[in-house]
Specification:
Elements: H1 22-39, H2 43-48, H3 55-67, H4 86-97, H5 119-130, E1 136-139, E2 155-159, E3 162-169, E4 180-189, E5 192-201, E6 207-211, E7 225-233, E8 238-239, H6 245-281, E9 283-284, E10 287-288, H7 293-321, H8 326-355, H9 365-373, H10 383-396, H11 399-403
Parallel strand pairs: 1-4, 2-4
Antiparallel strand pairs: 2-3, 3-7, 4-5, 5-8, 6-7, 9-10
The protein binds flavin-adenine dinucleotide.
Length: about 400
């Protein structure tokens, strides 16, 4: 069979089978430039400093992000965001996944739940967040309610002026630096418990950070435990209506899981870039270590994982953009998160092995990613919970709809 030669510069990437329009390709290029020029050079300093970069460096990252038009990607333009599709957003997250130490957390942004906020809440919290002037944090998990959020005990009792919140929330990402918390609590209405999201300013009386433990990764922000004791709230502090918490939570999960899947794909890309380059130049026993199949075959397995995971992730993002059944998208986003987070973890482990002793140095990207990728199999629902969601999808929506 004759193989046709293509009119393309040597080394140029293959044309993408996904239909990325000019806008998406330009955005991808901008995000790539930002990741390589602004974020990557800061990684080792961030690692040495336990994830916390100096204030002037953080301010410069924010400024560069805003100048590159990367702040508030999924938020509406009229609120100060970029109005991207999920596919465009996934392409940007993929670039962030190629970097370590989550320095991209400094790119001004806010949780998607603010889309359901009142005009006053949008002015007070969302717009400043997208300008990089304040941070939000999202508090659902509790000591006895993790994989099963229906077990939360946080309560908001009705009072004459609104509600009285009592809760203790665990693992609140950015809870140590956030000015505002979005807190899931049950509004107590007679015998009913109505899951509801509340907006709580950090400086309200009764809000207290009770511990801020160290974790495996060195990221810019902590994940503290926060107590809310008799915090007085009004009707204006509810987001999405009383009893609307569970539904908002589901759309949050779909988006966050796609983001994790995209970043894990980016992580595999970077890991393979660095490790293939290393294995091709490292010689032991008179030959390149890349010539040992014990080194190159695990990398080939990870390349197959990375390519399959990328296709799955971008396809699900595109499906979500096309207004497909949100329930099917929910199952598929879980499948993408499950596959890519497990694959990225295997990939990081294989790459550390290929680097030998150097793979155990904190200055090595594979070492940092090995630690950092671990949590992607835990947060936003563990791998076991993703398997439950996929299994439920196979049963309820049918095998074909979940696979194709
Ligand atoms: C660094 C970090 C940041 C986080 N940030 C946030 C945040 O910002 N906001 C927030 O609300 N939460 C956050 N979380 C919490 C996170 O979402 C939970 O840790 C996660 O959902 C798991 O809950 P858990 O830790 O209580 O584990 P558990 O639910 O106790 O699970 C323990 C083990 O049991 C397994 N298991 C549980 N139920 C089942 C089941 N039905 N079938 C099979 N296996 C099961 C789990 O898979 C897991 O392996 C964060 C966590 C971490 C580590």
């Amino acid at each position: 069979m004759e193989v046709k030669s293509l009119d393309r510069a040597p080394g140029a990437p293959e044309p993408s089978p996904l239909e990325l329009d000019e806008r998406a390709l330009a955005l991808q290029e901008r995000a790539r430039g930002f990741a390589e020029r602004v974020l990557m050079p800061l990684e080792e300093e961030a690692e040495r400093r336990g994830g916390r970069l100096p204030d002037d460096v953080v301010a410069a990252v924010k400024r560069e992000a805003i100048e590159a038009g990367l702040n508030g990607g999924l938020h509406a333009r009229e609120h100060g965001g970029q109005g991207w599709t999920l596919l465009e957003w996934a392409l940007v997250e993929e670039q962030y996944g190629r970097t370590t130490n989550a320095i991209h957390w400094h790119v001004p942004n806010a949780y998607n739940v603010w889309t359901h906020a009142s005009a006053e809440q949008i002015d007070r919290y969302l717009r400043p967040a997208l300008r990089g002037e304040l941070k939000d944090a999202y508090a659902v998990t509790e000591r006895d309610a993790g994989s099963d959020p229906s077990a939360i005990t946080a309560s908001a009792d009705r009072t004459d002026s609104g509600f009285r919140l009592n809760a203790e929330k665990w693992f609140v990402t950015a809870g140590d630096v956030a000015a505002v918390y979005v807190v899931m609590a049950n509004v107590v209405d007679g015998s009913e418990r109505l899951p509801t999201l509340f907006v709580v300013d950090r400086d309200r009386p009764g809000v207290e950070i009770v511990s801020n433990p160290a974790y495996t990764h060195n990221y810019p922000e902590g994940h503290p435990t926060i107590r809310f004791r008799d915090v007085e709230l009004s009707e204006q502090d509810v987001i999405g209506g009383v009893g609307g918490g569970d539904e908002l939570q589901r759309s949050w999960f779909t988006e966050e899981r796609l983001g994790i899947a995209a970043r894990c794909g980016g992580a595999m890309w970077r890991l393979l870039d660095e490790t293939v380059a290393w294995a091709r130049r490292r010689e032991q026993g008179g030959s390149r270590i890349y010539d040992h199949q014990g080194v190159s075959f695990p990398l080939a397995d990870s390349a197959a994982d990375a390519a399959a995971g990328r296709l799955l992730t971008l396809t699900v993002a595109s499906l979500a953009d096309s207004q497909a059944d949100p329930k099917v998208v929910h199952h598929k986003a879980s499948m993408a998160k499950l596959f890519t987070s497990e694959a990225a973890w295997r990939c990081a482990d294989r790459c550390v092995q290929a680097f030998g002793g150097r793979g155990y140095l904190r200055s090595n990207v594979a070492e940092r990613l090995l630690r950092e990728l671990r949590v992607d199999r835990i947060w936003e629902g563990t791998s076991e919970i993703q398997r439950l969601i996929v299994a439920r999808g196979l049963e309820r929506r049918g095998v074909e709809r979940i696979l194709h």
